[in-house]
Amino acid sequence: MAGSKKKVLALLLASTLTTQLAACGTVFYPERKGQISGRIDPVVAIANGVGLLFFIVPGVVAFAVDFATGAIYLPGGRRAELAPNATPDSLSEQLYASTGQRIDWQQDAVQVETLGSVEQVQQRLLVAY
């Protein structure tokens, strides 16, 4: 009887550690992977926090994984889509409508590049900062 209790407890502990190492946000919302920032989802944060209460290391790992993958952030960020025949003038008008700021395309700090994929955009933004 004591041996079966130990096996059940070991199985429960192993499954709990495995789910915490996988990170709650990554398990609950795999479609959120790849987000860079946003508002933190309280459900995911609380679930990861429960991991901190019981097991410090897996809880910290769960937070680290969720932040690294972006799964802890709520969805809802607007995605920019650009028409293939966009011009600096049409871009300026769209940016002004969204932000209220005018862009001076002649400034030295302005760089215009054509990028073919979201990954290239992310890489360029990481290099810029």
Automatic annotation (TrEMBL):
Keywords: Membrane, Signal, Transmembrane, Transmembrane helix. The keyword Signal applies. It comes from Oceanisphaera marina. This is Uncharacterized protein. It comes from the Bacteria. Residues 1-22 form the signal peptide. The chain crosses the membrane at residues 48-74.
